[in-house]
């Protein structure tokens, strides 16, 4: 496929980053509505696409910074970066959930300042972070595969059928809340003065003021889903 232009300028890239951020929240809100109507598989699919849009946002910001000095970049190269599902999920991933056994959680709550307690505390946290790192590496691909399973009816190698309805209430709720929190992180980081200056310098047409209320909308999704019976999990953010 050919395009009318072969180069794209920094301001256009920055504009695309904001469009992706806006679209991510729309997908999160749509996923919440589907979840509330018990369409858990469809909600799961949409919110994984929302995380992809967060990844698109991060990739575009990275390329914006890279092209500020050169003045432009090849459209074909940029589109190649944006066409890789797993890569976008990796860029969009900010929070890793790690299950903690009740006995470990209880021990963490009652650790003393004595050397034996500190040593055991360090060991527990090292195990948690090792688990988180393993999950961080494999999760983008696993999530991409799980999304396809949630989207299609498919024939498995044992002759049975994989059904989209296999996504549970808890699975849908948890990932919507996680991606909504990741969205908030993106908006918070984008409100740094350097990005505000870049926005003004390149006269980006996306209305900046719409992001002022967007964090409240994302938090509303989280609170609404927790109020409907969600279970809190232990999260490790990078």
Explained architecture:
The protein is mainly alpha-helical. The chain has a domain at 7-97 and 167-236. It is 69% helix and 5% strand. It has nine helices and six strands. It has helices spanning 10-36, 40-70, 75-82, 85-92, 102-109, 115-151, 169-190, 193-201, 214-227; strands at 7-8, 73-74, 96-97, 154-155, 161-162, 235-236. The protein has a two-stranded antiparallel ribbon with strand order 1-2. Strands 3-6 form a two-stranded antiparallel sheet. A two-stranded antiparallel sheet has the order 4-5. Helix 1 runs antiparallel to helix 2 (40-70) and helix 2 (40-70) crosses helix 4 (85-92). Mean pLDDT is 84; it is low at 230-238.
Distance between the termini: 39 Å
Task: Give the averaged pLDDT, no decimals.
Answer: 84
Most strands sheet: 2 strands, antiparallel
| Largest sheet strand order | 1-2
Strand content: 5-15%
Low-confidence stretches: 230-238
Could you give the count of β-strands? 6
Helical percent range? Answer: 55-70%
Global structural class: mainly alpha
Number of helices: 9
In short:
This protein is mainly α and 238 residues long.
List its traits.
238 residues; mainly alpha; two-stranded antiparallel ribbon; two-stranded antiparallel sheet; disordered C terminus
